[in-house]
Amino acid sequence: MAWLEIVRTGPLTTVQDRGRPGYASIGVGESGAADRFAHDCANRLVGNHSDAATLEVTLGGLAVRASGAVSIAVTGARTPVTVNSEPCSDYTMLHLKSGDLLELAYASEGLRSYISVRGGFDVPAVMGSRSTDTLSWIGPDPVAEGDRLPVGTEAGDWPADEFVPPPATPENPLMMQASPGPRDDWFTPASVAALFRETWTVSSDTNRVGARLHGPGPLHHSITDELPSEAMVAGALQVPPDGRPILFLADHPVTGGYPVIAVVAEADLPAAAQLRPGHRVRFHRKVER
Question: Which strands, in side-by-side order, build the sheet including 86-88?
Fold first, then answer.
């Protein structure tokens, strides 16, 4: 049996797959990889099924040692990668021999990197998923120094290409499409207009649950009644009483009692998951077809 031993974890490293959908009615969120595109890309590069578990590495700083020969890929945030201190490329398949040391430096851009291994990481599944939900703490614990993560068997055919072009450097401000509602009528018309007109900045208060945004001023409620708890989705822009919107990400709560002024398009969520504190964003009204 092959495995990867955790030598150094960096700020936060968790195991993630495509999540555990279907349990919101009992209070369990979907969770899963925050940047699904990068997660899926990492799995494709090593010939895995898309739901094979990867490592999600926040900001970099991870080091792992191979026990047995393994094939891996690193995607997501642009992070300098080395094997036995020799520079290697991300967004390509790498072959490690037993004893090889893979290290990720700290990301030069983006926030979350993904490491796949051919066969996936064979950690125990909880409610059908190997994802770590950092809001409810369902799933495996964040990886720790000394952990040995076994390699599983969730591999398909080998990929046709061993390299995928990395994504372009994200714009700053990043443009994201969003649909007003479902509670945009709880805000003044001027505040709804400001959401789509102004530039917002990701604050230091950001994690897998969501990112708090700062703008030129607060968004104002036109209705101050208490809102009964409603279902929440990834991409929801919830506005608490301080008027500063929170963009919900993979580990968002399944319900919330503050109004949602708009919802970011699902296609833009992978880019949203890579936003670092200080990055600016703008919202454009999504054209409904």
Answer: 86-88, 81-83, 101-104, 62-67, 3-9, 148-150
Tell me the pLDDT tens digit for each residue of 57-79. 999 999 999 999 999 999 999 99
- Cis? peptide before 216, omega within 30° of 0: no
Number of domains in the chain: 2
Q: Name, in order, each residue with C-beta under 8 angstroms of 153's C-beta and a sequence gap of 6 or more.
A: 119, 120, 122
pLDDT at 161 over 90: no
Query: Residues 20, 144: one domain?
Result: yes
User: Identity (one letter) of the amino acid at 217?
Assistant: G
Residue 47 has pLDDT above 80, yes or no: yes
pLDDT digits (tens, 9 = 90+) for 32-41: 999 999 999 9
The alpha carbon of 212 is separated from its chain's Cα centroid by a whole number of angstroms, namely 15
DSSP-assigned letters across all residues of 200-244: EEEEEEESSSEEEEE-SSPPPBS--SPPPPEE--TTEEE--TT--
> Is the residue at 169 inside a domain?
no
- Give the Cα separation of 49 and 88 in Å (integer): 24
Nearest to 132 by CA among 58, 62, 233, 30: 30
Residue 158 lies in a domain: no
Contact 271, 174 (CB under 8 A): yes
Q: Is residue 9 predicted with pLDDT exceeding 90?
A: yes
Cis peptide before 182 (omega within 30 of 0): yes
pTM score > 0.90 for this model?
Answer: yes
Give the DSSP per-residue string, 15-37.
EE-S--TT-GGGT------SSHH
- Same domain? 144 vs 14: yes
